[in-house]
């Protein structure tokens, strides 16, 4: 009898852990779904907007670079900009270095 009770309890434990295995997998999948919607997707949206902003730059736009240089776009080339940072002071900047539009602020 003792052996029979032991076998029944081990069988019950195995069937209970099998359900727990599926729950663990479901929780991991749920964590990845939540991470996608709260972290990855918003970052992709932000990157898309930044790329659209960089593609739409034109002469006269006020910008800020990654390095914190404020200026006005004086010429747009394929992947570079000529930015006027002071009277008669112009620098060549890569478009990927532009991070912000400062059109609504005053310098």
UniProtKB/TrEMBL annotation:
> Where is the chain membrane-spanning?
20-39
Is Transmembrane tagged as a keyword? yes
* Topology within the bilayer: Single-pass membrane protein
Q: Name one Pfam family in it.
A: YajC
Family label: Belongs to the YajC family.
GO annotation, cellular component aspect: plasma membrane
Please give the chief subcellular localization of this protein.
membrane
Q: What is this protein called?
A: Sec translocon accessory complex subunit YajC
GN (gene name): yajC
Is GTP-binding tagged as a keyword? no
Q: Which key words are in the record?
A: Cell membrane, Membrane, Protein transport, Translocation, Transmembrane, Transmembrane helix, Transport
Where is the protein situated, by its record's location annotation? Cell membrane
Output the GO biological process annotations, alphabetical, semicolon-separated. protein transport
